[in-house]
């Protein structure tokens, strides 16, 4: 794809994803009861409603991204929210991150850089198509 | 074990299906609401399947398996939406699949 990738949308989505995960965690942590009551109590938590509101925003952002980009390009980039959530969780809930998590984070970052870096092949095609008439003359 | 496999495959398929319908929603203006509602419905069914999966197996085992979805969604993009995926993009998808599997299993 020679189209420019709009990074702002992907960064905004990763941010919203991360906040949603945190609100869900907060809702689950504050919910009490056993069995079905536990799930019912989740909906009494303010946090789950914050999360649901953000989910609407998440949906709109995702549709906007898909409107501008290939699914096979956009979907892998959403993996960005996995390490960002882990990092925020480490801050908020003092969760320990193992070496394996850091290696995985490094791989995800490398993958995102690779997939969003400029596609030279498309440029070459454009150059070739431009130079073709010149060759015929 | 068989129930776990069936549920896990269902979850992964539903999750990929959800992305297919979101893509359709972003491309087809006339049926946008229908596609969005279908995607949200698939999401809810997937969630139910996922909660059931978590009853049968530890999250550290099943969550990394779901990262295979990055490959499945890539295939959906290629075959359903005729997206041009070069070797660079496939490599990136593979690296991200391995990366998320490592993160999700390395608690």
Describe the structure.
The complex is a heterodimer of chains A (about 140) and B (about 110). Helices cover about 80% and strands about 0% of the residues of chain A. Chain A contains 7 helices and no strands. In chain A, helix 1 runs antiparallel to helix 3. Chain B has about 110 residues and is mainly α. Chain B has one domain. Chain B contains 5 helices and no strands. In chain B, helix 1 crosses helix 4, helix 3 runs antiparallel to helix 5 and helix 4 runs antiparallel to helix 5. Chain B is flat and about 40 Å long. Chain B starts with a helix and ends with a helix. In chain B, about 30% of the residues are buried.
Task: Pick out its properties.
heterodimer; A: 137 residues; mainly alpha; 7 helices; disordered C terminus; B: 107 residues
What is shown here, in short?
The complex is a heterodimer of chains A (137) and B (107). With 137 residues, chain A is mainly alpha-helical.
By secondary-structure content and strand pairing, the structural class of chain B works out as mainly alpha
Largest sheet of chain B: none
Number of strands of chain B: 0
- Show unreliable segments of chain B: none
Largest two-chain interface: A-B, 36 and 38 residues
The ordered H/E elements of chain A are: HHHHHHH
Q: Give me the number of helical elements of chain A.
A: 7
- Span of the ends, CA to CA of chain A: 30 Å
Question: How large is the share of residues in beta strands of chain B?
Answer: under 5%
Return Rg of chain B in Å: 15 Å
């Amino acid at each position: 794809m020679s189209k420019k990738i709009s990074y702002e949308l992907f960064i905004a989505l990763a941010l919203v994803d991360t906040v949603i995960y945190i609100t869900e965690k907060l809702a689950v942590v504050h919910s009490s009861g056993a069995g079905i009551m536990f799930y019912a109590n989740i909906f009494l938590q303010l946090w789950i409603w914050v999360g649901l509101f953000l989910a609407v925003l998440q949906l709109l952002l995702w549709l906007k991204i898909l409107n501008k980009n290939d699914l096979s390009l956009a979907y892998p980039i959403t993996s960005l929210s996995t390490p960002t959530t882990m990092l925020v969780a480490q801050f908020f809930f003092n969760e320990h991150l193992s070496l394996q998590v850091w290696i995985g984070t490094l791989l995800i970052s490398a993958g995102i850089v690779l997939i969003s870096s400029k596609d030279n092949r498309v440029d070459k095609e454009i150059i070739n198509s431009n130079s073709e008439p010149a060759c015929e003359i | 074990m068989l129930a776990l496999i069936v549920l896990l495959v269902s979850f992964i398929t539903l999750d990929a299906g959800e992305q297919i319908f979101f893509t359709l929603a972003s491309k087809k203006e006339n049926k946008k609401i229908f596609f969005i509602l279908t995607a949200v419905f698939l999401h809810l069914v997937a969630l139910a399947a996922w909660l059931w999966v978590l009853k049968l197996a530890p999250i550290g085992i099943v969550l990394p398996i779901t990262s295979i979805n990055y490959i499945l969604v890539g295939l959906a993009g290629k075959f359903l939406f005729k997206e041009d995926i070069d070797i660079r993009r496939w490599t990136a998808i593979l690296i991200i699949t391995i990366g998320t599997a490592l993160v999700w299993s390395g608690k």
